[in-house]
Amino acid sequence: MTIFKAACVQLRSSDDVAENIRDRARLVREGASHGATFVATPETPTLMAPDGGAKLAHSHDEAHDPALPVFSALAKELNIWLLIGSLAIKVSDTKTANRSFLFAPDGSIAARYSKLHLFDVTLASGEAYRESDTVEGGGEAVLAKTSLGVLGLSICYDVRFPHLYRRLAQNGAFLFTVPSAFTVPTGQAHWHVLLRARAIENGAFVIAPAQGGLHANGRKTYGHSLIVSPWGEILAEAGTDPGVIMAEIDPALSVQARARVPSLLHDRAYTGGL
């Protein structure tokens, strides 16, 4: 594994799929132009629908999704690893999968990951989200073996489930991707803490591209895309506007962090007391 540059693309997606795809491509190119060989976009980069019905109406199965060929060609043209944080992939008449795609530099799909943990919650502000009404949860944790090293894939709400990241780390991941669209209240309270905790407790890099700002459908997302080191340091952070942040990723720092605090070797099974 060698040192490489990574880029987070921060977005403010709308419900115009074609416009979103064009703008995503522009920002991915910007990241690559600054030397990034790994570029990541947030959750739902091509569609921020006003409701579940509108999302279903604009969704396609994987074979017919209009964004996938564009991003495949872009990864190949730029010779980069390209993570599309998630697309709404239609899996039935009533549900989509919230699915990440990792494209290799030859344009092939190197890994797919469907979000395991679905965001069903009513916030103190009164905002209610029922992701499971229109999304079918995934059933598998996913590791991506790449020329950059082994990556562990996740999406947004997954970050609240530390056992997922522990499993990924103990099976070889030195870097986690956490594409997200956090709400403002939960982002202000928990975003930095959760991402830094997942990095520190596993000695892993965290790359977390985010949606940010006021969307056309009235939803507000927190932004603050982050790249975090295995020691918990924030290497790069965005504000709330669309743009690109960059950081150097040295896999050796993960090895060093795990040697300094070898907690991955110290997990124990609990056989009693609870």
Radius of gyration: 18 Å
Main sheet properties: 6 strands, mixed
Q: Would you list the SSEs in sequence order as H and E?
A: EHEHHEEEEEEEHEHEEEEEEH
What is the CA-CA span between the terminal residues? 42 Å
**Total beta strands:** 16
- The CATH architecture comes to 4-Layer Sandwich
Outline, from the CA principal axes?
globular
Spans of at least 5 consecutive residues whose pLDDT stays below 50 are none
Give the helix/strand class: alpha/beta
Could you please describe the fold and organization of this structure?
It is a single chain. The longest helix is centred in the last third of the chain and has 19 residues, at 184-202. Strands 5-4-3-2-1-16 form a six-stranded mixed sheet. A six-stranded mixed sheet has the order 8-9-10-11-14-15, covered by helices on one side. It contains six helices and 16 strands. The protein is α/β, with parallel strands linked by helices and 274 residues long. Helix 1 (17-33) packs parallel to helix 3. 26% of the residues lie in helices and 28% in strands. It has a single domain, classed as Carbon-nitrogen hydrolase (Nitrilase/N-carbamoyl-D-aminoacid amidohydrolase), CATH 3.60.110.10. The protein has helices spanning 17-33, 52-57, 67-78, 162-170, 184-202, 252-260; strands at 4-10, 38-40, 81-90, 96-103, 109-114, 120-122, 128-130, 143-146, 149-153, 175-177, 205-208, 212-214, 220-222, 226-228, 234-237, 243-249. The protein starts with a strand and ends in a 14-residue tail after the last helix.
